[in-house]
Amino acid sequence: MNQTYEQQYLQQLGERAKQASYALANLSAVQKAALLNAIAAALTANTQALLTANAKDVAAAQAEGLSAALIDRLQLDESRLAGIIADIGTVVRLSDPIGEEFGSRVLDNGLRLTRRRVPLGVIGVIYEARPNVTVDIAVLALKTGNAVILRGGKETLESNKLLSEVIRSAIASQGLPQDAVQLIDSPDRALVTGLLKLDRYVDMIVPRGGQALQRHCAEQATMPVILGGIGVCHLYVDKQADLKRALAVIANAKVQRPTVCNALDTLLVDELIASCFVPQIAKYLAPLGVCFSACSHSAGLLEGLGVTVTLATDEDFANEWLSLTLGIKIVKDIDDAISHIRTYSSGHSEAILTDDIHAAAHFMNQVNSAAVYVNASTRFTDGGQFGLGAEVAVSTQKLHARGPMGLEALTTYKWLAWGDYTSRS
Amino acid sequence: MNQTYEQQYLQQLGERAKQASYALANLSAVQKAALLNAIAAALTANTQALLTANAKDVAAAQAEGLSAALIDRLQLDESRLAGIIADIGTVVRLSDPIGEEFGSRVLDNGLRLTRRRVPLGVIGVIYEARPNVTVDIAVLALKTGNAVILRGGKETLESNKLLSEVIRSAIASQGLPQDAVQLIDSPDRALVTGLLKLDRYVDMIVPRGGQALQRHCAEQATMPVILGGIGVCHLYVDKQADLKRALAVIANAKVQRPTVCNALDTLLVDELIASCFVPQIAKYLAPLGVCFSACSHSAGLLEGLGVTVTLATDEDFANEWLSLTLGIKIVKDIDDAISHIRTYSSGHSEAILTDDIHAAAHFMNQVNSAAVYVNASTRFTDGGQFGLGAEVAVSTQKLHARGPMGLEALTTYKWLAWGDYTSRS
Description:
Two copies of one chain form a homodimer.
Chain A: H1 5-25, H2 29-45, H3 47-63, H4 68-74, H5 78-93, E1 101-106, E2 112-119, E3 122-127, H6 132-143, E4 147-151, H7 157-173, E5 181-183, H8 190-195, E6 204-208, H9 211-220, E7 233-237, H10 243-255, E8 264-270, H11 271-285, E9 291-294, H12 296-302, E10 309-311, H13 314-317, E11 325-331, H14 334-344, E12 349-353, H15 357-366, E13 371-376, E14 394-395, E15 403-404, E16 411-422
Parallel strand pairs in A: 3-4, 3-6, 4-5, 7-8, 7-12, 8-11, 9-10, 9-11, 12-13
Antiparallel strand pairs in A: 1-2, 2-16, 14-15
């Protein structure tokens, strides 16, 4: 069978990653710390060259007329790069999950059995724009003894090429295979689809990007994919909520950083408090720049209050806003709220505000998203906030890892058994 | 958009399963025990009808000229059915993993955070021939609060239809939604492919069947799939092995039950002991009915010993024999053995026989299959043998669950956080 050039390229990429993963799998924590420190030092030493490469990306983005927000995301300066490098130090100080043994016991059949935590092997990461992901993911993968194949956005190709070259040289300087980190440096989209078929070599795919990328990976990948990072998040204000204290939490969930996945998308208000509370919400949030995508009931209550309101469609309620637009819907009761969440949520983060212990327990039990909050902002769903020390992604699927993924999500276990020339009877 | 009849059918199937899963998710252990006991009682009460339905499947299979082995697998009799029902009692007595909380702590930001173990939701299982799987999987799913969509082989359609009807009636008798268990009762293959696209409703697919089914699921499914049950298993006889004791372990791994996934496929022999040991193997295994698929070196050593030998190709070494054929290859040393395993293994079970502690540790560290043995038969890779009390499948992939999957593999967790109207700073 004739292979295309792309197939050959991907085949080699996978084979090299797999070979490199064998060398990484049994490194000690001390060796991995030395490796990560060498990478940090090499990035520091190459600061000027990295900024020059990044400037090319920025210039190209400006020439193509990309938005200022996007250009800001891809731009590096000395302080941002220093921040990225400083984060490597944080990862170095995290404890190494590899090698831990758990569930050890002697079985009735005489075998001594244990489970040992080991690297996954080869991880493929597909991401957009931000060049910090290149460093973050390479470092987290190496910390857990995994090889990684990176595919960044074409907007940061020059930055990513040099970042990965510097990282690869640092790996080689430690006597380790530089193919532990490989970048797909062609913008050819067929290579993404090809990567998703490389199940012989790639153990897990992590897409870090929007809905279209997630969907493409779910549909095309033949290996496990961790979907995540899409948050259609809800906050339900129960009839027993402390409405004065509720306002600040709602504002925090919506306004503190509206462009991220754990920001609030739809506010659900119990109808018993709606006529009193909805105008208060409008008064509190409008000065913060919030406009509303409202159900017909709440739209009526918002009328004449000088806020921007549009009538919400079903599609609107399924939308991740990533902006200062807030969906608002008046619900009959807590079960109506739960039913709305089950229909429209992406399974990321939901909250209830209530002083009623029964309502709190019912919401916790019935809502099955990755993170469920009582009397707190949805903005806490984050590896750092949850004390994981690092964040690979926020998973919205239920297998392997759910919610913020720390280092452990980059590992698996194997069963090890010792016998004495033992046969099964 | 016009939906086909199949799409509508699958849509309803998924929607019903999802709705049923909500009712199951918060059942107590006592309620689930009552449910399982009711199912066992209903199956017992319907023994004669179930045997009559099964007899139709057997008659159809005989008319179609299916092999005696296959017919034996699908046939029920009073004692087999009683065994299947007795297994429900075993599952009832297992401890319920749902509701357990772990990793609980108070975060610096003031939130009280915990992870609670919850059901996955809806599980799809695609399997072949054996009607016991219908009962086993339904019971394990219900025990963990999951709804299940079953798709059995067409050879057991009559048996599966009645089994699932009896189970559904028992569920309804407990005041629970009978759609907690649904059977796809049409042999239309398009429904399997359609099921694999129902990611909106189905949280996990478990294919229990051969290579072709596994591959179809890996390629077509848009939700997570647990691949498994294909074992190309290796046993390496190190130069320091106790050769006398080794023979019984090799025989056990190959002969005790050659048709299952943890049976031995390829024996790797260190070349330093090959000329002495290979003839002993032949002498020991040939009377047990074993024939050999041998590398050219071992074929030479087997010549003239009155055993059946064919020369192995690369494809042969990648084959799961499921028969009394044993692959045999002479390797230069332990690293050559490890390299062979990395190339040909399906990641199921591998063993080393050795008295050398260094060889044992090296093999354990370098071989990354689901189960790795020192001085034991590969036949132990099994939920029952590993003390899990039940077995959903044996996973050969690295995410979520690896090796024998017990009840916990049918669960996930959600993060629960309590604040006091807490905002992120």
